[in-house]
Sequence to fold (589 residues):
Amino acid sequence: MKIGPRMIVSGFCLALSLLVGIGLVGYMNTKQIADSLALVSHTREVLEQLEHLVLTVADAESSRRAFLLSNDPGLLKPYHDGIVAAPRQLAALRRLTAENAGQQQRLDLLEQLVQRRLSQLSASLQARIAQQASPETERAETIEGAELSALLRRAAFDMERTETLLLNERQARSKASTRDALVTYSGGLVLSVILLTWIFGLLRREVAERTAAEAELDRYFMQSLELLCIATFDGYFTRLNPAWEKTLGFTPAELRAVPFLSFVHPDDLAATQREAARLVDEGTETLSFLNRYRCRDGSYRWFHWNAVPDRERKLLYATARDVTEQKLAEAQIRELNRELEKRIGQVVAVNKELEAFSYSVSHDLRSPLRSMDGFSQAVLEDYRDKLDERGVDFLNRIRGAATRMGELIDALLSLARVSRAELRPVEVDLSKLANEVLAELRIADPDRQVEVSIAPGLVVQGDTALLRLTMQNLLGNAWKYSSREPQARIAFARTTSDGGSTVFSVKDNGAGFDMAYAGKLFGAFQRLHAASEFAGTGIGLATVKRIILRHGGSVWAESALGQGATFHFTLEAGLAPSAAEPPEIANRP
Fold:
């Protein structure tokens, strides 16, 4: 179970509440004991006063009796003292029993009896002194006095018995209060000890956990590869981990000796001071910023800071991550981007030169070629009778070469137009294009018998003109290279690759080619068959590759000599930019 400050505070509050409760109960028990003891003492005092009163009256009687027997006036002192003391004792009893109505009634009777007895004693004593009492009178007074004394003692006994009962009751109550207090104190003490022991265990566990956490934090602080530090609001480091010395070369003592701003690059100083002011003065909770810190060798390294203030203790807790390599890499990327843009500009310029060259070839070389072909034909027509067969053959070869050169020029211009043409992507039905291309091929070569299979509904997004040119080249090659097969077969279909991409395929059962030379297949003027076997310029597949790449796809082939060929292409990745437009540079500044 997770120990938290709330649990410990709750435990302390419970212990405090228990102690307060024990104190209150103890106070009440103590007060009750004190009240019981006071009542017991009060009852004892009442009993003592009763006893003194009875003794006072008895002493007065004894003193009178001794005087009557001896006629010695000195023996009357107890009598006279009793006459004075009895009223005071009655008044004391009256005060002590003021709150006890029953005792007050009994005291009324006792007081009457005491007064009558003392009055009787006084009267008989005065008669003896005056020698007016006869023996019969004294005997009668003695009998009457004995009766009064008996009544007086009975009345005193009644009060004493009542007070004794009160005394026993109050003593029992005092013992019970004492017992309750002992039980309360003992139980409270046991509970307090148990509770305090539990709290002490919680505190020990909390201290152990905090100590372990602090040790773990200290271990992390010392072993972290990032630069960790604690600094004061007045600008000095108070603690740094070893990564600082490894990174900057300064010892921790050297870093603590001077303000930390003295290590900041001059160009970054104002911004760092501004950020520090925001953190300390403006109440910002966290802050992240970059600056450069000076190393012992005079170089500077880039640090990315994250800082948190402790305003109560006026401390800053911060981590600094060395991002120097990242900044250098960013600078290199910016430089590479600039270089790439420069190269792209050069490529654009070269493309423009090639375009100018293409137009030059188109317009400037066509005229000499037409002249060569025209003059060769004129010589053949006007001077055939003057030429032998060898001369005629030479002229025919010149005308064939001129025608060949014209075809190559047308192919080059077509390839250039493919690279420069602006893409206009729309929905294109490749199945329909394939059927149209094959219909044109059948018209051009009506004697061929070719088995054709074209999958229906092959619709893509792309440029209609360029995709038509793609189908013309691929299906045209399949038509051409299967021309020597008695049962030629051409198929156009769609499949799905293992990665989920849509793959279109043009397949034939023609001459095929050696896969060892597949790397040259899509290069300009690269031919794997002699022109005497199959006519062509060697530009068709290069044109196909450029069109497919401009549509964001890829093209490849599978074949074997004498076993036909299959050309695959994809159009899934979207449209690539025109070659005349430089591609967007990533991370361009």
